[in-house]
Amino acid sequence: MPAENPILVALDVPTPTQAIDLARQVAPYVGGFKVGLELFTSGGSEVVAAIRELGSEVFLDLKFHDIPNTVAKAVANATRLKVQWMTIHCAGGPDMIQAAVASARENAAALGIHPPVILGVTVLTSMDQAQLKAIGVGNDVEDQVAALASMAVSAGLEGLVCSPLELERLRRSLPKTIALVTPGIRAATDALGDQKRVMGPQEAVAGGATRLVMGRPIYAASDPALAAKTIAQSLGVA
Ligand code: C5P
Questions:
Q1: Which fold does the domain 7-234 belong to in CATH?
Q2: Could you tell me the pTM of the whole model?
């Protein structure tokens, strides 16, 4: 029996119809799909439901960041969509994080389902030193990632989104049970696109990634199903 399939395909395509078509093609070879802000604001909860009907996991990447009460209610609604993963911004602080985790647990218990894992986003990869300074953060990027990660885990968060190059340091400093979900994955033969700091899928899993978010290496391939199958085989999960 193959191990759990860690591949989550980023559905970064223009329309909900295209997203669902792509999901149908590759679902047999991957663990699930990432629905981000763009797809959710066009396809809404119907896209999520269509993907869940395929039996695939959904990573709802809406990066909630608001007052604790509002985030708790958004998390409750996302939990009712029966997604397996969702994101919040660690910068929302410990109270917001605790409210999010409690809401996922309470609402999942009421539905009799497994609670979704809430993943914290630390510092967006689009932020550099100058951008951090502009929002009043004096730490350098690495220190800010480490500070937010440790605060978030102390507040009860069970997972983080991170760069594959942060895996080693985070795996050393965080409890083993913390899920680490990483984008920036490329096989040696894949085009980098705009990704600069990447790692291969096998290397990332060996380095402690719980799930791999992969977009273009799968959806932009001439045969997305074959591309997904090849990656899954390389990971021993197909
Ligand atoms: O196409 P590619 O494999 O680069 O897609 C990666 C996905 O992960 C995209 O949806 C991208 O927005 C997302 N992501 C990322 N880097 C981050 C956070 C999210 O590439 N730091």
A1: TIM Barrel (3.20.20)
A2: 0.96
